[in-house]
Sequence to fold (114 residues):
Amino acid sequence: MIVEPITLAGIQMAGRRLCISILLSHAIVFSAYAAGDPVEGRRMSKRWCASCHAVGPEGRGSDTAPSFAAIAQRRDVTYLQAFLSRPHPPMPRVQLSRQEIDDLIAYIEAQQLR
Ligand code: HEC
Fold:
């Protein structure tokens, strides 16, 4: 039986492989909806949406509004674009620009892959 010695180089190699796979999985999350910026979407969500919706894994929303994670599971980009183009009561009337809508969708869609 040949026992392979555990070398420092071997450990470094395994570490590097882990880093590369972490980088790749992040790239997949952030390319989920390329037209928008999920980081900007997250910022807006916390300010405008978090009073009703659970907008991320860390927060809790109200009982009436679905969580962003649940929305991401059941809705596609086309639906969200149409939905966010008009206000939805009880959400206050904020007129979202096309870019803001894309950013919000990028963030919502990223929840699906968590
Ligand atoms: C004052 C509370 C409130 C705020 C603020 C609010 N929402 Fe909502 N939202 C709701 C409620 C209640 C529903 C469920 C009823 C409905 O579909 O109209 C909903 C539904 C939705 C849906 C559709 C879910 C589905 O599956 O049809 C989306 C998408 C959504 N909200 C996104 C947002 C975004 C993005 C923001 C921030 C810009 C936001 N909401 C702010 C209360 C709110």
Observations:
- Helices lie at 8-30, 38-49, 68-74, 77-84, 98-110.
- Residues 48-49, 51-53, 64-66, 71, 74-75, 80, 83-84, 88, 90-91, 104 surround heme C (CB under 6 Å).
